[in-house]
Amino acid sequence: MLERVTAHTLFPPPTYSHATVVEAGTRLAFLAGAVPLDTGGKVVGEGDAVRQAEQVLVNLGEQLRAVGSDLGHVVATDVYVVSSEPSVLSAVWEVVEASGLSVGPHSSTLVGVACLGYTGQLVEITATAVVPPAPSAPSAPEEVAQP
Question: What predicted TM-score, i.e. pTM, was given to this entire model?
Answer without folding.
Answer: 0.81
